[in-house]
Structures are given as C-alpha cells and as structure tokens.
Amino acid sequence: MNLDVYGFHEQPFRMTPDVRLFFPSTAHSRAYAHLLYGLSQREGFVVVTGEVGAGKTTLIERLCAEFSTKGHAMARVMTTQVEPAELLRLVAIAFGAPADGGKAELLQGIIATLRRGVAERGRRQILIVDEAQALPVASLEELRMLSNVTEGAHALLQVLLLGQPQLRHTLARPDLDQLRQRVLAAYHLAALTREETHLYVRHRMTSVGWTGYPALEEKALDLVHEHSGGIPRRINRLCTRVLLAGALEHATVLTAELVSITAEELTQDLGAICAKAPAPHGAEDGTALRALTERVGQLERGVAPRERRGRLQKLWTQFATLGGRA
User: Fold this and answer.
1) Which residue intervals define the domain AAA+ ATPase in the entry (predicted)?
2) Ranges 165-169, 295-299, 316-320, most confident
3) What phi and psi values does residue 159 have, to the nearest 5 degrees?
4) Using CA atoms, how far apart are residues 194 and 78, in angstroms rounded to an integer?
5) Strand 215-216 relative to strand 253-254, pairing
C-alpha cells in the first residue's frame, strides 16, 4: 500500500501483533485484568482462550513488555501436538537450561535453572504456552507437575496457557481435575462489538498519523464489523485491502460500497485458494470406489451373465487395489 497517499507513517492494519497499537476493548481490558490478577498470585495456572485472531498474542506482547522491566523471566513456548519429553525440551530451551538427555535429566536441568533464577536474581519465572489446545493430556500433566515445584513456600514457576476455545473443553476433562484446581484465573476473549469495531479502526489509523483523511463512512465501518465478525485479525485483513483499494483510486472517502466490493474480492480470493488445494488423502480413492460401486450395480442389472462375469472380475480387482490403499 502507498502510505504517502493518506499520510500514514506506518501501515495501520499489520497482521503481526504490535503492542504499540493495542486497543483496550472491554474484552481485552478484562482479559488483561484477569492476567494481572492471576499472575499476582505467583503460582498455579492462568488461562486465556479466544478464537483465532481474537488478539491473544497482542495481549501477551503487552504483558511481556510491561513485566520484562519488573524483574520477571518470561519464557515462551509455541506448541503443536508436543509429547511430554519434547515439551520439557522446549521449556528447557526457553529458560536456558540444558536440553539434552531423557526426561529425568531435562526435569533436573529445568528445576536447577529455575532455582538459580530465584536465588541469584530474585526473579519471578513465568512460562507462556501458546496454542495450548494442541497439547496432549500427558503434556498438560507435565506442566502441572512443574508448577508444583517449590522453593521454600514459593512456587518456582507460574504457567500461562493461551489457546483456542477447544482448550476449555480439554481442561474440563475429568482426568485433568488436579490441573483445574490449580487454575487461578481464566478468561475467554470475545469478539469486538459493532461500536468497538468502529473505535478499533479509528484507533489503529489515528496511531499511525490519520487526521481524518480519508473520511470513513459509518456504514462502511458497520460492514467491516459484519464481514469480520469483530475478530481483530479479520478486521486488519479487510481494512488493509480497503485502504489499498482506496489508495489506488485516490479516494477521499472510504465508502460502504468500497468495503462491500473488497470483502467480496477477499471471499473470492480465499475461495480460489481453497479450490486449488489438493484433496485430502484418500479422497480420490473414495470417489473412485463410489464410481466403481455404481458400475458394478449397472453391470449386475443390465449385462448378459457371461459378459458380466468377465467385467465384474476386472472391477473387483480394481476394488481390491483401492481397498488396499484406503
């Protein structure tokens, strides 16, 4: 996008989280308050969930920016179906502990490093686990055991779990009752309301030098909310394209029509990407099997017995081949 057209000194709707552009919506302000309360307890777990793009990472960036200047050691782990031993290895790397050896060596190294951090620097140590909904139950249990390690009367580690809504369902499992008892604060990050979407768009643009040019139609902002569902990342994606279209036309007003056309183009673009995506493994075989089934039925209904026998034998051979791949 040509920033000079509208006088912005940066792009207002970057997809990557930027704490400088943090917008304190009602949901985000409450989520942050829950984070601060939970972390003030200095033990156990704090849980924040939300849809993809709801702003969880931006929230954590703000937290890290604030806490890193207050003597806290903040370690972050991104997880995707990580088994217990590999999760411990990631935790070790995040805290600068030795990452070699088996589970016992990893645990010893992590605990020794955490104890040194408390003894030598007096630091509070916080582990942030992102995409926690992907963790197996055994890995969540490993985190619970780590959170139980103490030095005197104080826990060595506090754990912050970030995840999509599925994480709440996982934590509700009966076999995770002990972990649930260690959750001191939990919050689900909801989407922005229509009014907050208006404020969010204006806030982001003002933060990078917007002074009212281009003008924004109220109806246009209503449509931004309608098409994005109030999810910040979707708002950013749509508004980036709207500004690009406006800049190309040197539009002085971003209209509802422009938003509507741009949203439709985005939908078509994504539809084209999905249409070009390869079929899931086995989908072609499933289609072939259905076609063969239909052909077998036709032969059994309408071909003379001697001819039918030969054709059916061929088809059953194809069935066997496909069945072996399914």
Assistant:
1) 42-206
2) 165-169
3) -115, 130
4) 32
5) parallel
Give the sign of the dihedral formed by CA 117, CA 121, CA 126, CA 128.
negative
Residues contacting 206, CB < 8 A, separation 6+: none
CB atoms within 10 A of CB 272: 10
| C-alpha–C-alpha distance, residues 28 and 30, integer Å | 5
| pLDDT tens digit sequence for 190-231 | 999 999 999 999 999 999 999 999 999 999 999 999 999 999
Between β-strands 154-155 and 45-50, what pairing exists: parallel, antiparallel or unpaired? unpaired
Give the pLDDT of residue 325.
45
Q: Which long-range contacts (CB under 8 A, 24 or more apart) does 240-247 make?
A: 240/1, 240/11, 240/13, 240/15, 241/265, 241/266, 243/1, 243/6, 243/12, 243/13, 244/1, 246/5, 246/6, 246/214, 247/1, 247/2, 247/5, 247/6
* Closest by Cα among 271, 197, 265 to 228: 197
Helix (DSSP H) and strand (DSSP E) numbers for the chain: 13, 9
pTM above 0.85, yes or no: no
**The two structure tokens encoding residue 89:** 């290895």
Q: What is the DSSP string of 31-95?
A: HHHHHHHHHHT-SSEEEEEE-TTSSHHHHHHHHHHHHTTTTEEEEEEE-SS--HHHHHHHHHHHH
- Compute the average pLDDT of residues 47-71: 88
Residue 287 is encoded by which pair of tokens? 């289609």
Q: Is 80 exceeded by the pLDDT of residue 4?
A: no
Measuring CA to CA, which residue among 211, 196, 264 is closest to residue 24? 196
Q: Which pair of tokens denotes residue 180? A: 């649930």
Q: Which residue has the tokens 């051979």?
A: 317
Residue 49's DSSP bridge partners are 163, 188
Side-chain half-sphere exposure of 201, counting CA atoms within 13 A: 30
Under a CB-based contact definition with an 8 Å cutoff, are residues 226 and 4 in contact? no
